[in-house]
């Protein structure tokens, strides 16, 4: 009959879990006491156990430590909790409840392989905790400890020779990959088509943020043309100017419209909360923004664009007057060509009349000639008018 059992609390509390659970440890100890009635139970946990359990269990853990229900190894103990558990079991000639094999201690504590000195257990669904006697698992660390007869360190798993080699450099980039080293993409053209189709979507411009709502903005534009003075309150500094407020309308004063020469910072001219008189210098409909400036500076900037606009209007009015004569001249030239064609037709008719019999044509010939002369005279008149118009246009 087992008289004393040392519980590896950290190992049992983490069985089947990633983080230790104080509730699971308590359930296992209660089942162990029912299984081995009359045995003394000592629960040992490592120094980090209280930091790894859930926050809601820490108060209960501190109470258990204060009541000696749980025991932690002293700070700086070599071998941590495992060495402390084995030292207690060796001194009390007790069994150990743990699923660990303690391989690094096999050379020092050979009694671990004695019957009944190591007990294992696991919770089984719908059954509860089941306990069995077990023997420690041997391995490379166990053989080194037995060979030296001392406590050894666990060997960390070594990487394979292939894993220790440098990473291979791919000869070709993966499909649809953009190479920064100038390596040509050897992927088929079909894989490159989705990239081309996706480029317009990636290059789509983000919507422009509007400075004002459309209705107040249109009303303000109608009542305040460029050159109008308004009162505004300075709200905030921007990178190259200040933002002001005029009731429901927000405006912007760039540095170039503050002073001449342009100041280095808007803080030298304006302060937040100041109410100043400004002049409207223009509008940007694409962003519904109102551009403002100091009247002394903006008034000069507004005059020049007005002069340019007037010059453009005057040139637009004179352009039709210069081009009009050219169109008339083209019409008159076409009329002269028609007159020449008429003359040739009349001459042909006259030749045909002369070739006819004398009796029939004698009385009628003079009349036809006079008619032909009249027609030539009438159709030749536009030529004279065109000549006069050309002379007048040349004088102009």
TrEMBL record:
InterPro entries: NA-bd_OB-fold (IPR012340), RNase_Zc3h12_NYN (IPR021869), S1_domain (IPR003029). Gene3D superfamilies: 3.40.50.11980, Nucleic acid-binding proteins. Residues 227-295 form the S1 motif domain. Residues 367-377, 386-396 have a biased composition (Basic residues). Residues 141-197, 309-334, 367-396 are annotated as: Disordered. PROSITE patterns: S1. Residues 167-176 have a biased composition (Pro residues). One of its GO terms (molecular function) is nucleic acid binding. Residues 187-197, 316-328 have a biased composition (Low complexity). This is Unannotated protein. It comes from freshwater metagenome.
């Amino acid at each position: 009959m087992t008289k004393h059992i040392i519980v590896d609390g950290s190992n049992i509390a983490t069985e089947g879990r990633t983080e230790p659970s104080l509730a699971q440890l308590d359930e296992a100890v209660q089942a162990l006491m029912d299984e081995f009635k009359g045995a003394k139970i000592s629960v040992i946990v490592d120094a980090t156990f209280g930091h790894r359990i859930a926050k809601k269990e820490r108060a209960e853990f501190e109470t258990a430590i204060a009541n000696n229900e749980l025991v932690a190894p002293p700070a700086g103990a070599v071998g941590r909790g495992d060495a402390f558990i084995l030292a207690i079991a060796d001194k009390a000639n007790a069994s150990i409840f743990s699923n660990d094999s303690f391989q690094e201690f096999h050379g020092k504590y050979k009694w671990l392989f004695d019957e009944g000195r190591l007990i294992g257990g696991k919770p089984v669904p719908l059954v509860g905790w089941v306990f069995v006697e077990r023997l420690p698992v041997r391995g490379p660390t166990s053989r080194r400890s037995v060979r030296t007869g001392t406590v050894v360190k666990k060997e960390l798993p070594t990487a394979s020779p292939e894993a220790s080699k440098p990473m291979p450099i791919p000869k070709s980039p993966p499909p649809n990959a953009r190479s920064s080293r100038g390596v040509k993409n050897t992927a088929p053209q079909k894989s490159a088509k989705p990239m081309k189709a996706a480029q317009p979507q990636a290059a789509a411009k983000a919507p422009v943020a509007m400075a004002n709502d459309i209705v107040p903005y249109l009303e303000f534009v109608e009542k305040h043309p460029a050159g109008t003075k308004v009162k505004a309150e300075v709200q905030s500094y921007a990178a190259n100017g200040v933002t002001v407020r005029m009731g429901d309308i927000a405006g912007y004063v760039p540095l170039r419209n503050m002073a001449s020469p342009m100041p280095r910072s808007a803080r030298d001219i304006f302060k937040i909360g100041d109410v100043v008189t400004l002049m409207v210098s223009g509008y940007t409909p694409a962003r519904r923004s109102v551009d403002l400036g100091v009247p002394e500076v903006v008034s000069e900037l507004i005059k020049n664009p007005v002069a340019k606009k007037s010059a453009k209007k005057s040139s637009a009015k004179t352009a039709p007057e210069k081009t009009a004569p050219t169109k008339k001249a083209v019409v008159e030239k076409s009329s002269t060509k028609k007159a020449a064609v008429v003359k040739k037709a009349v001459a042909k008719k006259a030749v045909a009349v002369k070739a006819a019999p004398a009796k029939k044509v004698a009385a009628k010939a003079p009349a036809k000639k006079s008619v032909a002369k009249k027609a030539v005279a009438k159709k030749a008149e536009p030529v004279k008018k065109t000549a006069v118009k050309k002379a007048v246009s040349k004088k102009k």
